[in-house]
Recover the amino acids of this structure.
């Protein structure tokens, strides 16, 4: 079976997405790339009930290579992301707070410094019908500049990673950031970190503190 390990990983992440509430039912989809091949979730199937055999394999041009089930309707979006980025994995969720922000805003501002882990301010891609080339193009535009996450207008979120674990953790972080923002708005107007403040965080990350060694 082609990409046996990758297909097993898709199933594992699918179960985690369902268990953490980032998807419900058959919503959301996952893919992982290995060379010129991509393993993706099948369309219309609950993500916590998949087996590796359920996950079709395509080439990067979108031709079905192996599998009995039809690929997810969002496969064009996944392939468009692989075409324009160095990502090896993509996770698309329908998480609650992500959908709230994607329905009401044009971007998720830097409410917390960990926004930098997603590449900065998270843009909301303009709405388009799911599974269409228009949506794929809108998401690709929202990810420009090395972003590792985007929200999709009136839809959900999408995150990238060097592997599926990273893409999954980015999805969890995106939902947490959206949740913090939505809850903060209930209390008052959230304070957004400035470019200068974010730059200092980046500098600190690039230059870890040095601790003098105690003499024996």
């Amino acid at each position: 079976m082609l990409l046996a390990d990758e297909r097993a990983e898709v199933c594992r992440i699918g179960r985690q997405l369902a268990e953490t509430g980032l998807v419900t039912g058959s919503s959301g989809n996952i893919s992982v790339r290995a060379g010129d091949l991509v393993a993706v979730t099948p369309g219309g199937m609950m993500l916590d009930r998949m087996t590796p055999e359920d996950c079709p394999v395509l080439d990067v041009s979108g031709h079905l290579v192996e599998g009995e089930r039809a690929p997810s309707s969002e496969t064009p979006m996944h392939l468009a992301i692989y075409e324009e980025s160095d990502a090896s994995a993509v996770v698309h969720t329908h998480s609650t707070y992500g959908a709230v922000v994607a329905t009401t805003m044009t971007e998720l501002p830097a409410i917390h410094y960990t926004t930098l882990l997603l590449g900065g301010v998270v843009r909301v891609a303009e709405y388009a019908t799911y599974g269409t080339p228009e949506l794929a193009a809108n998401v690709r535009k929202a990810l420009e500049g090395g972003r590792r996450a985007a929200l999709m207008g009136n839809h959900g979120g999408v995150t990238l990673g060097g592997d599926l674990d990273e893409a999954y953790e980015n999805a969890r972080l995106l939902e947490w950031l959206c949740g913090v923002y939505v809850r903060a708005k209930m209390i008052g107007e959230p304070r957004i970190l400035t470019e200068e403040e974010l730059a200092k965080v980046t500098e600190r990350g690039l230059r870890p503190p040095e601790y003098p060694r105690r003499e024996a």
Observations:
- The radius of gyration is 18 Å.
- The first strand starts at residue 29 and ends at 34.
- The CA atoms of residues 185 and 213 lie 46 Å apart.
